[in-house]
Design a protein that fits this description.
Length: 365
């Protein structure tokens, strides 16, 4: 193939360690088909789905916290977010900011030249509300860890913003996940929302998006990240793993309960999280980075009339809402660091180490 027909890309060749991510300079450049647009990728943010898919952490054979390393006991046939096998090789990366370079037959030529973000959830447009007919960009189809990507034009959202490409690439996965969690838990003005893992991409998004609704947010994070987390406006910041969460809440805000816990952490602290939810309160979850297997006292659940919701697949329209928040300056990016695409392994290692606040992005600068 000629240079015009190839591109640089990082390709996932199978489940395993970081060496399964291969940087290539001769990968076939995609061509926009009917109804599709070809996007020149400017930046692509990292996310936990990529790590969990690579390591097969989603497999029911895995009971440990996410580490970024391959797991014994993982099975290929249930190793993705949807509990199914993934096809290799695969270009991952869902959080794309780029410019439309060309469109296929039947697609809108007015998109050419526009800076865009991509809705991460893929739908059967004849049955768009069917959760069993959804896919994820960068999982079921190739994503944005490449110079070019193509996607159905219905997933493309033009964006007008003074933010940089790298800053815009921090939003998609984290913020759409957070907004879906808040929607599922019906968070509104007057709620008090406890957010474990508040320094991460989803956690920091939850603070901003819950504050936007008029809720009061209580962040939990490591002491070394507390000052940075305070800059995005939580009512209080608690330690990541307090010995007594009830006492920590009482000391920080003068009350021992919250109306909502929005969790992506899980792990050993989980029983304490449930214990501080007020009667009739809600728990919503979109991750378990500290461990998926937890101690669950059913008496706490039913005697307090609690409501639990899982939050993964995002309904149509929510991504468009998010783009509006960005364009109006109602939320801000937290760009921790950028890496060139060829250093994606190093970028993912830094992402896994969780020493940053916000998100890490790869670029083509």
């Amino acid at each position: 193939m000629s240079a015009q027909e190839t591109m640089r890309a990082v390709v996932l060749t199978g489940h395993g360690d970081l060496d399964k991510l291969e940087y290539r300079e001769d990968w076939p450049k995609p061509v926009a088909g009917p109804g599709e647009a070809l996007i020149k990728v400017a930046a692509c943010g990292l996310n936990n789905t990529d790590v969990n898919t690579r390591t097969a952490w989603y497999s029911k054979g895995v009971t440990d916290a996410t580490t970024g390393e391959a797991f014994e006991g993982a099975a290929d046939d249930d190793a993705t977010w949807g509990g199914a096998a993934i096809t290799f090789p695969r270009i991952q990366g869902a959080d794309v900011c780029g410019v439309v370079e060309a469109v296929g037959e039947g697609a809108d030529p007015g998109l050419v030249g526009k800076r865009v973000l991509i809705d991460t959830w893929l739908r059967d447009w004849s049955d768009p509300l069917n959760l069993d007919k959804t896919g994820y960009y960068g999982s079921e189809i190739n994503g944005g860890y490449a110079e070019y990507t193509k996607v159905d034009q219905r997933y493309i959202h033009p964006i007008e913003s003074d933010l940089s490409d790298a800053e815009l690439a921090t939003f998609a996965t984290s913020y759409i996940t957070a907004e879906n969690m808040l929607n599922r838990a019906q968070v509104s003005e007057g709620d008090t929302v406890l957010i474990p893992g508040a320094s991460g991409g989803v956690g920091s998004a939850l603070i901003q998006l819950a504050n936007r609704r008029g809720a009061s947010t209580i962040a939990m994070c490591g002491a070394d990240k507390a000052d940075q987390v305070r800059t995005i406006g939580p009512r209080a910041v608690l330690p990541r793993s307090p010995e007594d969460l009830t006492a920590a809440l009482r000391d920080a805000i003068g009350q021992e309960t919250v109306t909502v816990v929005a969790d992506v952490v899980g792990g050993a602290i989980w029983p304490q999280l449930i214990d501080v939810i007020a009667r009739g309160g809600r728990y919503t979850c979109a991750g378990a980075i500290a461990g998926p297997i937890v101690e669950f006292d059913l008496r706490t659940f039913y005697l307090r009339d609690l409501v639990f919701t899982g939050a993964t697949i995002v309904p149509p329209g929510v991504f468009a809402d998010l783009v509006g928040y960005i364009a109006r300056g109602e939320i801000k990016p937290l760009l921790a660091e950028t890496y060139p695409l060829k250093d994606l392994r190093e970028a993912q290692a830094a992402f896994i180490s969780k020493r940053h606040v916000g998100n890490i992005v790869v670029t083509h600068d």
